[in-house]
Amino acid sequence: MKEIIIYILSDSIGETAEQTVRASIAQFENLKYEIKKFSHIRSVTVLDNILNEIDDMDNTLMFYSLVDDTLLTMIKKFCDINNIVNVDILTPSIVAIERLSDLNPSTKPGALRKLDENYFKRVEAIEFAVRYDDGKDPRGLLIADLAIIGISRTSKTPLSMYLANKNYRVANIPLVPETLPPDELFQIPTKKIVGLTNSPENLNKIRKERLKSLGLPLGSSYSDLERILQEIEYAHEIMKKIGCPIIDVSNKAIEETADIILNYLRKANNSII
User: Alpha carbon of 249 to those of 129, 153, 194, 228: distances in Å?
Assistant: First the structure.
């Protein structure tokens, strides 16, 4: 059997089409083939130059993921005239969704790729939040989009995860009177740092519930009101030294606190917005 020349034409980078082609090829053990992929085809001139390069019509197979009507018409006409077996990867799916939803497709090249990039960016941000949660590695502060500081039970971790789902890489650092803050905290711009606090009463209640859930004695200093006041005072001193905003999370939902943080960052003209 002669070698098949498989052309992959795309108006984006061509990953969708190539994955489809390779998944199909995998079903044929002894297939001899060569793949020629052409990306970012968004003009008639570019497409015409590619089609004119094809010299072996009998052994050519064409896969394409294009959304522009002019380019689609051009390539389909070329394949019909030259009797080239061809596969339109996107159009049948787009038409099916259009018919059922009664919506018009955007016909934006690379739309799927943009979604993929957003997805992977979010996954990366979530992994970042987990890796640099609760001061595990203060070096994360140097590459984070945002640093959240505060004493225990001020919603640092939930906020970090919430913001990670919005593609922000967040590191959070616990402030404890017996431990000095990491040096990295003073090496990053103040506008990338946000401090969290809570009322002594709320912290006392939350920490008691935490101890109870862990099966630990309620008399621990962790939930002692005097100890909590000491921690709050220490944390406020650090935050004032840094010059970062202090947000009281008392009776605030995670979403509400997150909105406050994002508004602050926008006003600060932070580069991550």
Answer: 20, 10, 12, 15
**Residues sharing a CB contact under 8 Å with residue 56, sequence separation 6 or more, in sequence order:** 5
Per-residue pLDDT of the chain (273 residues; tens, 9 = 90+): 679 999 999 988 888 889 889 989 988 988 999 999 999 999 999 999 999 989 888 899 999 999 888 899 899 999 999 999 999 998 888 888 888 898 877 666 555 555 556 777 888 899 999 999 999 999 999 999 999 999 999 999 999 999 998 899 999 999 999 999 999 999 999 999 999 999 999 999 999 998 988 888 888 899 999 999 999 999 999 999 999 999 999 989 999 999 999 999 888 864 444
What does the alpha-carbon distance between residue 84 and residue 181 come to, in Å, rounded to a whole number? 68
Strand order in the sheet with 170-174: 170-174, 146-150, 193-197, 246-248
* Spatial contact of 201 and 157, defined as CB atoms under 8 Å apart: no
Q: Report the 10 Å Cβ neighbour count for 98.
A: 12
Instruction: Output the CA torsion sign for 83, 89, 90, 92.
Output: positive
- The predicted model scores a pTM of 0.59
Tokens of 169: 């890489």
Beta-bridged to residue 8, according to DSSP, are 37, 63
Q: How many angstroms separate the Cα of 1 from the Cα of each of 4, 21, 31, 85?
A: 9, 19, 8, 17
